[in-house]
Amino acid sequence: MKSMTGYGRATTSADGNQVTVEVSAVNSRKQVDMRFAIPRELGMLEPVLRQQIQDQLSRGSLYVALSYVLNPAARKQMAQVDLDMACHVAANLREVAKKTGINGEITLQDILSVPGVVVEAASSPYEPLKDLAVAALKDALTALDDMRNREGVKLQEDLLMRRQTMIDLVDKITARGDEALMLQKQRLRERIAALGVELTLDDERLAKELAFFAERADITEELVRLRSHLDQYGELLVSNNDPGRNLDFLGQEMNREVSTLAAKTADLSISNWALALKAELARIREQIMNIE
Length: 292
Known about the structure:
Number of helices: 9
Strand content: 15-25%
Radius of gyration: 36 Å
Structural class: alpha+beta
């Protein structure tokens, strides 16, 4: 089990070039959602990094930041000034100024703005950064994964403890169920008697009413389904897969059963235990949102 929350950072370098990648992850109900902060000149790396993340993660909202340092030689190759061309342009500009009578000093900006004076490198100096970025992201994701695993262990321990709390509550409700039903039947008889209606215990009308009442108040089916869900919940918590979505679905199903159970009973103790179950489920579902 893994948490969807974590952080990883890694730096790789070679030949004076250096790339640093930071990955921050938070929970998300969607599939992997990514936002990138990459220098514009390295924008071509985003599709490669995006695919690399999708191959490793299944859920979570990620923020990926990349920074780099180019070696001095590469920086020099990015753009060079053709001195012969610059001198030729300067001489031509002076000649134009002289012949046209235009006054004013020729600036460096005037010369550099002429096409061909500044020559860009034939090959991109950023190409060596691609492999470094891929390697840095791999290490950052490993660091992120380690943190998510550690957080996942804590989540698993907490959720298993809460599962046991729910099992104990279900056991209490089960033990109380038959007695609560008998008490409710007794209350029904007392209410009928209070109305002044003469009915004996073997009266067919009373028998039908009690049977109908017992059927509506019986919580056996809800308890059986709730126990089944808790069994599946326990299996998912110790599985090696990514159980987040399935656990979320089970949480919804358990909440539905507890709500039905609470609506059926008029017993104060069972109602209080059902409320405790719903409170525990709310905490569980909040934790489940952090699981991949």
